[in-house]
Amino acid sequence: MSRKTVRQAFVKSIPVMAGYVVLGIGFGVLMHAAGFGLLWTLAMSLLIFAGSMQYVGVGLLAGGASVITTILTTIMVNARHLFYSISMIRVYKDSGRYKPYLVFALTDETYSLLCDGIVPEGVEAESYRFLVSAFNHSYWVVGSVLGSLLGAVLPFSAKGIEFSMTALFLTSFVEQWIKADNRIPALTGLCATLLSLAVFGPERFLIPAMLLITLVLSLLRGRLENREADT
Asked: pTM of the full predicted structure?
């Protein structure tokens, strides 16, 4: 694993570092406010590493939710991964020993960095993708630990901290919108989400939105691939 590969992966991950450390701190503070110590926080960030689900998980743990409730909630919150991860099959197909970890560490933000499949010239592709994922994971873990420690010594209200995940999603969307030449997928996602929200309500819109997005993009696949080839 060359120094150039490590350096390029780190540079690529810097925007996520800025968000993950802050969001991780928020998660750690919430965990402490809910009565869970540093080890719980560290274990969740190391072994689960699902930002939005970890925020939701605080309430599930504090409320004593059943296993069935936890499973169903996890499916609802993270269902989007089933859809956008399909596009990473081609990117990750030759990842070898790194593949299990790459699958585990595919968060929304890591996806936004690696989904185009582009690797800087002169670096090892599989190692580069592994390092980007590992750097992002480490930022979240460090932030979570810091949040747990700060929550123990700095008294302040944790109300509203969970909205930080929504803010990060919006930031990722805006960044991709600015960089993308083809905005049809983004518009499809936005329109499908708003329509599903209006029809099914805020508690049930996620799965219908994902299904609608998948259907529309599948129907438009040929046109989108032709447009990409032309550019």
From this structure: 0.72
